[in-house]
């Protein structure tokens, strides 16, 4: 499967051919965002309150 950008998939999110790929890309984007936010929150908490 060829790689497509998120914007490409977002424009085609209602087309049956691209729907699953869009959902996977969206969930991946959300998951990575949550992981990055978690790292910042824990990093800040450990920095302020010590190790």
Question: Can you describe what's shown?
Answer:
The model has no long low-confidence stretch (mean pLDDT 92). It is rod-shaped, with a radius of gyration of 17 Å. The longest helix is centred in the middle third of the chain and has 34 residues. It is mainly α.
Choose one word for the global shape.
rod-shaped
Number of helices: 2
Low-pLDDT windows of residues: none
Strand content: under 5%
How does the major sheet shape up? none
Order of helices and strands: HH
What is the helical fraction, as a range of percent?
Answer: over 70%
Question: Main attributes?
Answer:
51 residues; mainly alpha; 2 helices; rod-shaped
What is the fold's blueprint, element by element?
Layout: H1 6-11, H2 16-49
Short structural summary:
The protein is mainly α. It has helices at 6-11, 16-49.
